[in-house]
Design a protein that fits this description.
Blueprint lengths: L1 H22 L16 E5 L25 H8 L4 E5 L12 H9 L3 E7 L20 H9 L5 E6 L7 H6 L1
Parallel strand pairs: 1-2, 1-3, 3-4
Length: 171
């Protein structure tokens, strides 16, 4: 019975991975993707290494240890690269104290993966927000990262469309 249950769980996980893969939307690509042998990748932003947020607003009985963060995934997929991480800023609060450290990591990178968006609790039933902008100081953080002039891959995670043409045009 355990083997049958394990197989059903594996089937559900495969289906979930397929659905997730099909739901990812590439808004634009200026030729930076796929990443071609970068030596140092900075993975920054409040959603770069947040396992719980990767589950989204309807995690049901899913195990919070199961999701792979963007930082973990890139580290695993590109073992030849030096993949470094700094959140820089949180999703919602106004604390700017960690931004300089994150920007220093970005300055030393060949490419930056900027991970911004909404927390899981900001979408779903009874979770409407009054603003469609990035929460907290994420826009300001993203602007600071983009101002460095490095190649930037932006990963936007949200449960609704967000008006971020300023980000799409520059990343």
């Amino acid at each position: 019975a355990i083997d049958a249950e394990s197989e059903r769980a594996a089937d559900r996980r495969r289906l979930a991975r397929e659905v997730a893969t099909r739901s990812i939307v590439l808004l634009s690509n200026n030729g930076l993707l796929p990443l071609s042998d970068p030596r140092r990748i900075a993975v920054v932003g409040p959603l770069a290494n947040e396992r719980v947020e990767m589950r989204g607003s309807w995690p049901a009985a899913g195990d919070p240890r199961d999701p792979v963060t963007l930082f973990e995934g890139l580290s695993s997929a590109l073992p030849q690269a030096d993949v470094v991480h700094a959140a820089g800023i949180s999703i919602e609060d106004e604390d700017w104290s960690r931004v300089d450290g994150a920007l220093d990591i970005c300055r030393s990178a060949d490419v930056i993966v900027l991970c911004v968006g909404e927390a899981a609790h900001m979408s779903g039933e009874a979770a409407s927000r009054a603003s469609l902008d990035l929460p907290g100081r994420q826009k300001e953080f993203a602007e600071a990262v983009l101002a460095l002039g490095k190649p930037v891959v932006a990963v936007l995670s949200s449960g609704r469309p967000l008006p971020v043409s300023w980000l799409i045009d520059r990343a």
